[in-house]
Structure formats: structure tokens, C-alpha cells
């Protein structure tokens, strides 16, 4: 008997296309190194230092905290090391593929040697965890091979038998069945993953060699490497929408509701971002920041990434490793210009830039941009009673913070006679709309001009660490130290403490995180959001706007069905699938220009939604 | 000394360091293998360190080959405590007098069911439709992943006993775990899967939408943490109290290192009556 692993989905296949968080099951260390090698090996330029550490140090997302090298033979280690030293991409791919194939073969041999003992089942399990490293390529390229191997793994697991429990329920091992299944898998591996026989590949994939060498065009679903985290956030930021705080209902504001939907929709992006289920909200979750976002090779640390590399939009590849810390979008309407370098004064133009250039989406329609902007303009800061409307500290602030306020407003020679408050202007939401070179970046070439960066707001910064454009400083303390050292401010320990206390006071906010309790679950939140998005059909169906209905349905119906897996009330899961189907029906009817049917399906959706509402948690 | 059967040879030395012949200032805990043996090794490092810190004594975790080895380790004192399913527990109770300390809680209850899952597009509407078709169960010594789902067919008179299953189904597999059984069904390798009621959550959200429940068993007590009968009462009580603190918000994250329940409650001995009856029905208990 085996155990239930977790209450969230732990997918044994690589995580792929979905908008809902799917926790990737931990990988065997060698499989983790192999998968990471494929991902990094397809970046341009290749990050050789990271490729090296993929094998020599434990990989995040591994089941165990050990390096792949620790489970490899000497000759396997030599092969990988040589390829890394030579920076030879193809040789590395071949050596890495050998590691996985050989590992499976060795475990199968051990299982055979130990057949009839409980040890055999463990060797089969270990072989299967390595086979997982190839599985997505086989599934995408060779359905019959995938089926045949899958049945062979079932036969192997069955053939090892069971000791039962002290003779009760014992099953004898079946040597013949074991041998037959083992031969099936070994033959397939030797035909398809014996690296010496590989033809060169322009893209490193797990597609079986017999399929690859046939010249067949195979599209393996995009997968992120082990250690990636794009959707699993420890604490969900609280979203403050101006109209909501004023008592209005988003369902009565169709443009805002549609913009909210687009903000959560992967459909407006292209390429890998869309296929991975990424949306604006993946990074700017609930108007703030997904501080846990991390993709190896793209992120130097959690909470940001290099947005102009080769992965998301090769057309936009600047071939420079320049991680950007994801900025919070709280109060975005008050914080122009946009982009860390302040390159756009218009939020609308900047949004278009994110969709089209950064994430390879199609040109958004004016309506879509109108909707996105209408929604984003509703983002407000978290209220902070420690500051007044002019950005001055109130009586709720500490004495240390008040001493810090004075320092904040004091001109320093090291700041060219300016004060911190000159740029982080308290009565302008602690920013000034200007860009500066403060010495946080280097010129792209000797004698070149250093990129200037936008003055970020200090409001609610307590919740958006790390700091600076590249996220290089982990805490507000370290920010104060950096300015003190680099600008020779001459602050002593006590003064630095006071200045830090001031930053924490102005950077504070009430109830920064969403609280989930009882039936107020993450699914409930998703339910309310998704049904609000769907409410725009009240406007779109009478307008017979098939294009925007299709986009809405592709987003909301898929998310509803996927989010059902996160329900606490699992008994009602099938009802959510019914609801999702009704939305699909409305979309299909509108696509077929059958507006009466679309309206009927939408009405049925609303009726069922109302009936189900109480059970939706 | 531990015999070869008790320990999973060739895995990490830390998890496998022989726990035999230690004084009772150390606690030896047996973990049952799961689908992903590498993950369990990593988990044990974390959770035993935490337990040791909380209890003020050395806690050693080790993975047994299977339930039989865990029971054997409890019998001869190589293990003080073991994680265990309800079915192996009632057998261990009969054989060595093992005592349940705690039960896992999932979705608010210390019990769950076994289910038969099929793909929505399979056209399979009843258990009888599975005659001559292929099915994957989790493991032969599993209540929710074998015996209880199997009993659904027996209760409908489709066959009798475990032997009757061989004639009824086309092929019947033991996939090696819930997840493997569910993936086999979802990917079309077999027509049905017999697994825990929560095993669908081991599929991707998209796969979950493509399958449905064909039948569900009666409730089964959830997995337990059990102790050898002669373990010091003070240690049993202290261990139980420490484990119950995992229900507190600040410790909740540690549950992910323990097969991922929502929490624990004290075990209720009477809750296992149904399992004892089921074990007797299938000849596992006299």
C-alpha cells in the first residue's frame, strides 16, 4: 500500500500548459540535472556557469539535497565534466542523456537481481523516477511507444509481487512477466536514448531519436525546469481596488471586469508564456508582486527575471543577463513613468510593450488595452495610517521613525546637496517621476552611458523585497547601508536605524495579505473572480462580440475547471465542471453565430451559478 | 541487528543508519516507501530533525522495504513507531499488539474512501462494464488502493474473493502507487483505476476534468501512526503531543514532509472495526 502524497496535485509528468498552480513532484537528482540541462541548453547565450552547477550542486526541485554527480559513475561524471569544460552543447546533451538511460538500465538490472525480495520494487520505483525525465518527449512524439512503455512499467510493478504482511496477502514474483516488460523498456531506451547514435539537434528535447532522426516535426509541450515556481505563492497579497473600497460591484463595470479577466488571461500572450499559463497576474499577483516567482536561468533570485532573453520572445533577446526585480503595481496610475528605466510615460504603451515584445503576444485590440488600463487604474496602495495625505508621519509612527523622517529630509553632500526626500517626494507618493543614475548599474561598454532608473515609490515597500531595479538588496536595512556607503552619507548606527525605521513606517500598509479561513478559501476567491469575469457576457452577448467572448471563454472556462482541483469541498467538484461546460457552450454558440443559443447557455450558467454558490469553497 | 529485509539498502546513509540497540533516549521511526523514494529520503531528514528538536531526544528515521518489514521492525524493537495504513495496522495489531497513536486528517476527516475511477470518454457506466477490461490498483497491501475498491465488485456479485478478479478483468495491474495507477488510467493505458478518493488530486487539473468516479467504497480510517506495544508510555504521550502541534499554523508547513495530511487527531481504536471485518472477509485475519 502506498500513501496519498499531498492535497495538491503533484504531477509526475513535467508541469505544462495550465493557468492553475500545479506543484511539480520533486525530481530524482539526476533527472533534475538532466531537465535543467535541456532548459538551460536551449537558452541563447547558454549560461555555462549554471549548467555546471546543475550537475555539481543540488538542484532546487530535486527530491534530495544532493548533487547529481553523487549518483553517477566515474565515466558518466567524466563525460559531463569534459563537455562542460569544453562548453560543447551537443556533447553535454549526449552525456546527460547517457546518465539517464544508464541509470534506468542499472536500476532495472538491480531489480532483476533482487526479484522475489521487497528490494526489487524499490529499484523499479527508482528506474521509473528517471524514466520520467524522458516521458514528455515520448508522449508527444510516439503515442504507441508511450503506451507500450507505460504498460511495461505497470507489468514490471506487478511482476515484482508483494511480501504481503507477514504472509497475509503475499503475491509471488513473476520472472517471465518481469523479463518481458524489462526487455520492452530496455529495447526502447537503447533504440531511442543511446546517445552515441544521436543526430545533432537544434533544440535539445526528450523526443526519441528514432522519431527525431525521421525528420518528423514534433512539438513537445513547453515545460519549465525543476526548481521553477511561477504560480505557488506563500502569501497572497491583498488587492485594493478603488471602486470596490467605495462600495461598487465589478460586475456592474463590464470594461473593468473584462480588463480584470485579461490581466489573468494567458490568451493575450504568445509562445511559451501562453502555453505555460502565464498572465500579467503571474508576476504582478493581485496588483502586487509574486515574490516567489523563479525560473532557473531566467531569474537570478525569486521575485523577478530577465524579461528580454531568448526564452519568451527570441525577437526581443538582448543577449544580456539582466534580471529585473518585478515592481509592485499598487497605485500604478500615480507612479509614471513605467518600466524600471522609466522608458514609457504611458501605461497603455507600456502594457502593449509587455504583451507584444516581452511575451510575444499578438497586437492587442484598442478595446483590450482600454479594458486592461481601466482595470489597472483601479489599483490603489494599501492604506497606511502612519502617513498622512502629504506623506508626513502621523502620531502612529515610532519616535525612531520620526527621527528618521528628519534625516530623510536632510540634504547631504554625497547626494549633491539633495535629500532622500528630494526624489522620493513625500507629497508625491514618495517618487518624483524622474530617472537617475544612482550608481546601481554599469555602463554597457567603457565610456558608455549608464542606464538611468525611475525613482520607485516607497509606499507599501515593506511587502515587495528585494530592492533596487535588479533586486540586488534584500532588505530595507541593506538599502540604507548601500546609500550610506556609496554616497558617503556618514550616518552612524543609530541614524541608520532611525532612517530604516522611517522607511518601514512609510512602507507599511494595512492587512497586506489575503486571509483564508473556513469557507473563505483560495477556490472561493477564484470562484468570485471568475464568475465576475464571466459577467461581462451580459454585455458581450447582446453586442454579439464573438472575438472577445472567445477570449473570455478560453480563459474562464479553462480556469474554472482547473481551479476545481483546489476545492476544499471536493464533493462539488463535478458541478464546477458542469458550469465550465456551460460557459464553453456559450462560447461555441457565439463562435457559430448562434446568438439565441449563446444567450440560453449563458442564462443556464447564471442559474446554475446561483444554485451552486453556497457549495463553492 | 536489523536484518536485510528491514532496511532499504543502497539509499542514503543518514536515513538508513541502523537504529538497533539504542538506549531509549532515542526514538526510531519507520517510514513506509512511497511512489517517489528519493523525495521520502529528503523529507525524513527534515521531519526527524524537527521531531528530535521538539522531543529533546535523538530521532532516527529509516525507510523500510514495505509494511511487513515495518511490522517486523516494531516486533523486534528495531522501530518504536511506524507510519502505517489502516489495513496493515489491523494485521500488525493482531500479530504483535501494535497500538495506534494518531490518525491523519484529510479534508477535515480522519477517514476516506476507496474509489474506482474511469475516463469520462470511456463509455464505462457500471462496474459490470469493466468485465474483460484492464484495471490498475495501487498495491496489493492497500486498503483504499486495492481491497476496498475490489470489494465493490464483490459486493455487486461480479466475482468472489481476490482470485475471482483474475477471471473478471482482462488485465489487473498493481501500478506501484496511487499516482501510477491514476496516470495509467488517465493516459489510457488501462480502463480503470482503484485508488484513494483523493488520488484524482495527483493528476493535473486538466486530467482531473477528464475523469470521473464510477464507484466509491465505505469510509476507511485514514493512515495511522502506530507504536510497538511495549514502548514507554511517557514517550508515546510526548510523541503524540508533539505530533498534534503540527496542527498549529506555524507548524503546518511541516506536514508536507509527512505524506501531506492536513493534520492529525488521536487515533480511535473502535474506528478500525470495519477494517478488521474486511481483513477477515478476505482471509487476512482469522
UniProtKB/TrEMBL annotation, chain A:
GO terms for molecular function: cytochrome-c peroxidase activity; electron transfer activity; heme binding; metal ion binding. It is found in: Cell envelope. Gene3D superfamilies: Cytochrome c-like domain. The keyword Cell membrane does not apply. GO terms for cellular component: cell envelope. It comes from Halocynthiibacter styelae. The keyword Protein biosynthesis does not apply. Keywords: Heme, Iron, Metal-binding, Oxidoreductase, Signal. This is Cytochrome C. PROSITE patterns: CYTC (PS51007). Its main location: other. PANTHER family: CYTOCHROME C PEROXIDASE-RELATED, METHYLAMINE UTILIZATION PROTEIN. Residues 1-21 form the signal peptide. Residues 254-380, 399-507 form the Cytochrome c domain.
From TrEMBL, chain B:
GO terms for biological process: transmembrane transport. Coiled coil: none annotated. Residues 1-23 form the signal peptide. GO terms for cellular component: ATP-binding cassette (ABC) transporter complex. Keywords: Signal. Transmembrane segments: none annotated. Belongs to the phosphate/phosphite/phosphonate binding protein family. This is Phosphate/phosphite/phosphonate ABC transporter substrate-binding protein. It comes from Halocynthiibacter styelae. The lineage of its organism: Bacteria, Pseudomonadati, Pseudomonadota, Alphaproteobacteria, Rhodobacterales.
Amino acid at each position: 500500500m502506498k500513501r496519498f502524497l499531498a492535497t495538491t496535485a503533484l504531477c509526475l509528468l513535467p508541469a505544462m500548459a495550465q493557468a492553475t498552480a500545479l506543484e511539480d513532484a520533486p525530481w530524482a537528482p539526476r533527472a533534475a540535472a538532466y531537465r535543467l540541462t535541456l532548459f538551460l541548453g536551449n537558452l541563447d547565450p547558454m549560461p555555462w556557469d549554471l549548467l555546471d552547477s546543475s550537475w555539481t550542486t543540488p538542484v532546487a526541485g530535486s527530491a534530495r539535497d544532493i548533487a547529481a554527480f553523487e549518483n553517477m559513475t566515474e565515466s558518466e561524471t567524466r563525460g559531463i565534466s569534459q563537455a562542460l569544460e569544453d562548453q560543447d552543447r551537443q556533447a553535454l546533451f549526449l552525456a546527460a542523456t547517457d546518465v539517464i538511460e544508464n541509470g534506468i538500465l542499472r536500476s532495472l538490472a538491480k531489480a532483476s537481481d533482487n526479484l522475489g525480495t521487497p528490494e526489487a520494487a524499490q529499484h523499479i520505483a527508482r528506474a521509473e523516477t528517471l524514466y520520467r525525465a524522458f516521458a514528455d518527449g515520448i508522449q508527444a512524439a510516439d503515442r504507441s511507444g508511450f503506451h507500450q512503455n507505460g504498460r511495461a512499467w505497470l507489468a514490471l510493478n506487478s511482476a515484482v509481487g508483494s511480501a504481503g504482511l507477514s504472509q497475509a496477502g503475499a503475491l509471488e514474483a513473476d520472472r517471465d512477466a518481469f523479463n518481458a516488460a524489462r526487455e520492452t523498456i530496455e529495447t526502447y531506451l537503447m533504440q531511442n536514448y543511446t546517445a552515441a547514435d544521436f543526430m545533432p539537434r537544434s533544440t535539445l528535447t526528450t523526443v526519441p531519436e528514432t522519431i527525431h532522426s525521421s525528420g518528423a516535426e514534433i512539438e513537445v509541450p513547453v515545460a519549465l525546469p525543476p526548481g521553477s515556481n511561477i504560480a505557488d505563492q506563500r502569501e497572497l497579497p491583498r488587492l485594493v481596488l478603488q471602486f470596490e473600497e467605495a462600495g461598487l460591484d465589478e460586475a456592474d463595470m463590464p470594461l473593468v471586469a473584462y480588463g480584470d479577466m485579461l490581466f489573468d488571461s494567458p490568451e493575450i500572450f504568445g509562445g511559451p508564456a501562453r502555453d505555460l499559463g502565464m498572465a500579467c497576474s503571474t508576476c504582478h499577483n493581485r496588483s502586487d508582486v509574486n515574490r516567489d516567482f523563479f525560473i532557473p536561468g531566467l531569474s537570478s533570485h525569486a521575485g523577478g527575471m530577465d524579461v528580454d532573453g531568448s526564452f519568451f520572445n527570441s525577437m526581443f533577446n538582448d543577449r544580456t543577463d539582466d534580471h529585473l526585480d518585478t515592481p509592485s503595481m499598487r497605485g500604478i496610475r500615480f507612479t509614471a513613468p513605467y518600466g524600471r528605466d522609466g522608458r514609457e510615460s504611458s501605461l497603455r504603451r507600456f502594457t502593449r510593450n509587455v504583451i507584444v515584445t516581452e511575451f510575444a503576444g499578438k497586437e492587442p485590440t484598442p478595446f483590450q488595452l482600454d479594458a486592461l488600463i481601466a482595470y489597472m487604474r483601479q489599483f490603489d496602495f494599501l492604506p497606511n495610517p502612519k502617513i498622512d495625505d502629504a506623506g508626513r508621519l502621523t502620531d502612529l509612527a515610532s519616535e525612531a521613525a520620526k527621527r528618521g523622517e528628519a534625516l530623510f529630509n536632510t540634504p547631504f553632500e554625497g547626494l549633491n546637496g539633495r535629500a532622500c526626500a528630494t526624489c522620493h517626494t513625500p507629497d508625491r507618493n514618495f517618487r518624483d517621476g524622474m530617472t537617475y543614475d544612482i550608481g546601481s548599474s554599469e555602463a554597457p561598454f567603457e565610456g558608455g552611458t549608464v542606464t538611468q532608473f525611475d525613482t520607485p515609490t516607497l509606499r507599501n515597500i515593506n511587502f515587495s523585497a528585494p530592492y533596487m531595479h535588479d533586486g540586488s538588496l534584500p532588505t530595507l536595512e541593506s538599502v540604507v547601508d548601500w546609500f550610506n556607503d556609496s554616497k558617503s552619507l556618514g550616518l552612524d548606527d543609530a541614524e541608520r536605524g532611525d532612517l530604516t525605521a522611517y522607511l518601514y513606517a512609510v512602507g507599511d500598509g494595512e492587512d497586506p495579505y489575503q486571509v483564508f479561513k473556513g469557507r473563505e478559501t483560495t477556490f472561493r476567491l477564484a470562484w468570485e473572480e471568475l464568475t465576475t469575469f464571466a459577467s461581462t457576457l451580459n454585455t458581450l452577448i447582446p453586442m454579439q462580440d464573438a472575438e472577445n467572448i472567445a477570449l473570455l471563454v478560453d480563459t474562464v472556462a479553462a480556469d474554472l475547471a482547473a481551479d476545481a482541483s483546489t476545492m476544499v469541498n471536493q464533493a462539488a467538484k463535478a458541478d464546477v465542471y458542469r458550469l465550465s461546460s456551460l460557459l464553453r457552450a456559450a462560447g461555441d454558440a457565439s463562435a457559430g453565430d448562434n446568438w439565441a443559443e449563446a444567450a440560453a447557455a449563458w442564462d443556464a450558467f447564471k442559474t446554475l451559478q446561483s444554485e451552486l454558490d453556497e457549495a463553492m469553497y | 541487528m536489523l536484518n536485510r529485509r528491514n532496511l532499504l539498502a543502497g539509499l542514503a546513509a543518514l536515513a538508513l543508519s541502523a537504529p538497533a540497540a539504542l538506549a531509549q533516549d532515542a526514538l526510531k521511526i519507520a517510514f513506509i516507501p512511497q511512489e517517489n523514494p528519493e523525495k521520502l529520503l529528503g523529507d525524513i531528514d527534515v521531519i526527524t530533525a524537527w521531531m528530535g528538536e521538539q522531543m529533546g531526544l535523538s530521532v532516527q528515521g529509516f525507510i523500510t522495504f514495505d509494511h511487513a518489514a515495518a511490522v517486523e521492525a516494531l516486533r523486534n524493537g528495531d522501530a518504536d513507531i511506524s507510519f502505517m495504513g489502516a489495513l496493515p495496522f489491523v494485521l500488525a495489531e493482531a500479530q504483535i499488539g501494535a497500538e495506534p497513536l494518531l490518525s491523519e486528517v484529510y479534508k477535515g476527516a480522519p477517514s476516506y474512501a476507496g474509489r474506482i475511477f474511469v475516463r469520462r470518454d470511456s463509455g464505462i457506466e457500471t462496474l459490470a462494464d469493466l468485465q474483460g477490461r484492464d484495471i490498475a490498483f495501487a498495491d496489493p497491501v492497500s486498503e483504499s488502493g486495492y481491497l476496498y475498491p475490489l470489494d465493490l465488485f464483490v459486493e455487486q456479485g461480479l466475482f468472489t474473493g481476490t482470485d475471482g478478479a483474475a477471471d473478471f478483468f482482462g488485465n489487473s495491474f498493481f501500478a506501484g502507487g496511487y499516482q501510477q495507477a491514476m496516470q495509467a488510467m488517465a493516459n489510457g493505458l488501462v480502463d480503470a483505476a482503484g485508488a484513494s478518493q483523493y488520488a484524482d488530486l495527483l493528476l493535473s487539473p486538466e486530467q482531473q476534468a477528464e475523469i470521473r468516479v464510477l464507484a466509491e467504497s465505505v469510509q476507511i480510517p485514514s493512515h495511522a501512526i502506530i507504536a510497538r506495544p511495549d514502548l514507554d508510555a511517557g514517550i508515546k504521550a510526548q510523541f503524540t503531543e508533539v505530533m498534534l502541534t503540527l496542527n498549529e499554523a506555524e507548524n503546518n508547513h511541516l506536514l508536507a514532509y509527512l505524506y501531506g495530511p492536513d493534520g492529525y487527531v488521536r487515533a480511535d481504536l473502535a474506528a478500525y472495526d470495519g477494517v478488521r471485518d474486511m481483513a477477515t472477509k478476505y482471509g487476512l485475519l482469522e
